[in-house]
Amino acid sequence: MPGASLTHIRLLLLIPTSLFPNNIETLLAGGATAFALALALTFLVKAFCYKVGWLDRPATRRVHIKAVPRLGGVAMFLAFVIVAILFYAPGPNSNPTEISIFWLLIVASTFIVIVHIFDDVTGLKPRTKLIAQTIAAIIVMGPWIPTFRGVLLYTFSNPFYHLPLPLPFFHEPGIYLFMQNADFSLLAIPAALLTWFWTVGMMNTINLIDGLDGLATGVVGITSLFITITSFLQGQQSIAILAAIFTGSVFGFLPLNWNPAKIFMGDSGAMFLGLGLAVLSIMGGAKLALALMVLGLPILDLAVVAVNRKRRGQSAVHFDMTHLHYRLLSTGLSVKKICLLFYGLTIMFGVLALRLARIYKFIGLGLVGLTMICLALWIDYRLRQRRVPLKPDGPNNPAPGGDEHPATEKISSESRPNLNMESKEYQAPTSSPLPRTQSQYM
Fold it and tell me: How many domains are contained in the chain?
């Protein structure tokens, strides 16, 4: 599709191209418009959910004491799509496939949101959701013969390029994964699998941290903000504008998702945010290391928890209370403090990713791992001080092989947290860890 098509759409919608003559003005205007529209749509979705009864109702494994709407992700998705069509257009120096990636992202996001709206309302099995995530990943790759029209991880920047190493391999500016172009062939299988792993993994990583009010929303918003800054500094103005619109859409949802949440994003929102981050971090290149650093803690947490589940002979999607945010809740920290802690760490690693040269990003990734270790040690020390046992399977030790689906998750009423009815703020229990407030199963 020609690059001018979106400009024509903007003209048809009476958005004059001269209104924002500079890229920075378009970036700020797009982000601000997305923020305002997402906020307005969140109120509308909230009211609609109350009207039709699509609510996350109190249960033995929930900490909220009244029904809360669960389709907030729809507001973010609609805000992003509408504002992107109005403001985004690839620049003259953009990659020829950029416009294709944009439309493939819109199609894949629409598909994944629709499937997970159904999941939020009626529930789907983990295998069904994994199939839907795989289809969305295939869509954004765009494997239309004879070439891939979307994102494909087959080349990476060489961090050792400027080092005086004797190996000729390290003198190339790029590292290729068995192929040097996006042609559809058997050589593309490793790249396609890696792209699938990155995309599906990112969706489930965001779903993982959507366990506390405002946690996933804030972390994703900060991450996409750093992607915006990085793209702008690299001269990728159109990608920066698209990332700014995504950022505004996410932050526009945060006011109503902040603890105590008036609305949850649901799996539809978590999957949309994960898919958006996965694609934005690949578009234009040089942002994978940034995404790995900024989202390093939840990515490591997902990997460690999944490995421990398999070691116990359980499914990787089996529910337990060993996720990092659950363990922090058990130490006595409030939901708001945990969110601010994650926000601060996300900002710190984002700044490091911007400041560090390519070769030193390995040091940054090492700092992420060191932070994870320090947090785990502090949590264990704090739990021993408070004499709070942390059982791998939660308070009632569900049978191995169970998954993290609300229909199968049971926690006794005795293990629910105490609530301060005046402040409506969660209080940590004295004898068992807190359950999550929002769904974060695969």
Answer: 1
